[in-house]
């Protein structure tokens, strides 16, 4: 039995009193003070970890004004505040020990749009890609780019003055901010915009906070103008954090406070709204992917490419490329970046041309390619090949791969992982190649591996040294390497911060600014925040205060993780290895990961959130000297006892009375997971939440009782075959209102589907498929077995969609083959989902024995439901030893049909050109990304057209959607993606591969949709 975890850092009374005062005065947002909520906000995409005191989620600028006003009441003047957006920063900008003000949950509205003047007004929590999806129909986009664009907020981009691919043309975020609405402590609202300097001087004479701010900034920036011009490097990626240079226009006639706030990292004010300049979408885009046999030569080739007037030049080294090849993302680009025969690609430059003049762009590409051809023939400059990508879809796929490369580095083999801390240095592009040679030499001195990617046109490369942050020796290298990289970067005329802001690295500011200009930053900080209460420790401290800055060798996630025993860390790597990249926060409702996060907007309900809570749970158990490995082993051997049961009853009773246990917070996060497994493939780190979730549930329930619904779900495969023999009787009772009410209120299950009537056995009575047994097949020779196909049953289609299995049998018949329906054997998926791991191991072992026996026949074995078929490939391999799992392989319908496609004798009748629409099961399409393409080829072979519809999760996920506590979220998830897609298509032409999906559609829409195989049957 696991112990109670009752001692965790509690909220301090002053903070609690502040939150009460806030609510009393009309705060409409959310407040969060639980340990779980604060833990989730203690990390970002960096290596650091700081536990905040509380979290606020305002709904409007008015809420933020209220926060800032109440904060200045005398009782609360020691509290500190830190604004937060998407949490995608790599340098700890949103981490602090005070109160976090998160703009991302509610302040995500697009407020106003003016296409004639080319601007849009947004709230700070709007995500970059969300804005661009909204703008696309109007022909515009917000042009500053970054790799985390599908979860990074515009407020975060503004606060770090973010930039990325294409910055030579499009510049940084600050170049596109026309004005800001910002709230300073005290509650005053600033509305900034460019203005004539004489107007700014007039404002500066007013006795208001705004006037005093203008006076300070005008005076300081004007007096130090000569030094500013001297110190600020002439780079595309200029110094961030109070941009003293661009406050004035070059002719000093225009003044803009906006430039001070851009890159300020929340140290001056809360940014709540922004007026942004938008750019017309280019009519023509092309990519040239240039392949090299040397990464150094790929870098040295950059000036040659930039001279071709490209929009951007992105580069990847072999480390990143090889990690991408192992990821699901590679299937989408493998035809766009093919191997070069007899060569090894050690570097890749992705060169983009974009604009409105197609003829000019084609000329530029032709000229570049002619030069590349000559280099290939002459074997010069490392060029070994190139490919041109002309379609927008392919271009986006390549950039998606490039963006995912950031997270993929965290999936490198071994305990040492490439991490960000000196990763966005910038030097003049002409110095880049020599600089990187010196940088790599430095890392080689410490015998460190690393990954490199970046923007060579702008002189920015992301170099991520591989360190094991659980190793104190490696952790010490953070400061040592940072010091040496600072010196190296200065030597080559560059900056430490090229695009990701300063964060914990601001301690090096005096080295680059010089003491005089650094003190000017402190004066500006003092004008906005004299008491150092806004994100203290970042950028600088105000004049008159002596608090220390955050340090690059501050407290990291590794500081806490190393307290977990090595064996446990290794055994729970699925949770430990999460590096915080946050791809699971992707805003796109049509992407499969993560449905619970999408519907709740609560990061506790995300793979990153669940991994973070699990890590802390493991650490807290380790503090109590709990040997988890021994406990899990004992669970396999131990039988149930009365005393254990009594203990669980007692503990559950105390829990119902409010007794605290951190395990409850972890449990709430885990049970909201749909176990769809999208994270196990979509996450760059392959964080397999369902795997460690099931282990947690097993351990949690050693201390606490399970709900009744868990037992009903886990045992479904034992009682369904019995019930299905009398479907009419049970369906009659299932339809009774009082039964439904009882089920909802006392069992915790709703909308249970009806059993098939007639049953599968009744439908197939007399068919050879049910008369042929395994024993009869085992006496046949290889030639006699040649045309047989074994159909593997699952508990869903066999007992709830008998007609579908019968149709599959008939399809096999019509293809001239001999179907054999194998006896139903429990799969155990539901047991795994609910954490009944001992039962699952027993079920899996028995079923594996049977399927291995069938596999010896050497004939195809095919299953219909993706979730259960893929369980054989995943959970069975995790649970059973290799020998017990065996080599049996169950194919899905499309895999089997695709394999035999060339042998089929089918009349190809293309008279019917109306499309069919495929809604693929989320687990299936994330595990087998080629599924839609294979179905399309199969339909084409049958003379039909099939279009793939990109959707997220349907919200059913096995029995998840049938559990009362999940009903609202299940319906909400369906409404995010499936419902709007189906509303725009003829339902009778829509197809779904998953039983759960078809079940959910029937429940919500009131009509059934078919499995693709049923359409194929009708065509024969």
Features:
single chain, 1020 residues, alpha/beta, seven-stranded antiparallel beta sheet, five-stranded antiparallel beta sheet, 27 strands, 44% helix, globular
Characterise this structure.
The chain is 44% helix and 12% strand. 51% of the residues are buried. With 1020 residues, it is of the alpha/beta class. Helix 13 packs across helix 15 (392-408) and helix 45 packs across helix 47. The mean pLDDT is 93. The strands form seven sheets. It has a seven-stranded antiparallel sheet with strand order 17-14-16-15-19-20-18, with helices on both faces. Strands 5-6-12-8-9 form a five-stranded antiparallel sheet. Strands 1-2-4-3 form a four-stranded mixed sheet, with no helix packed on it. It is globular.
Low-confidence stretches: none
The N- to C-terminal Cα distance equals 59 Å
What sort of overall outline do the alpha carbons produce when their principal axes are compared? Answer: globular
What's the count of strands? 27
Q: Describe the biggest sheet?
A: 7 strands, antiparallel
Classification by helices and strands: alpha/beta
Number of helices: 51
Q: How much of the sequence is in beta strands?
A: 5-15%
Tell me roughly what share of residues is in helical segments: 40-55%
Q: Using the CA coordinates, give the radius of gyration.
A: 30 Å
Strand line-up across the major sheet = 17-14-16-15-19-20-18
Mean pLDDT across every amino acid position? 93
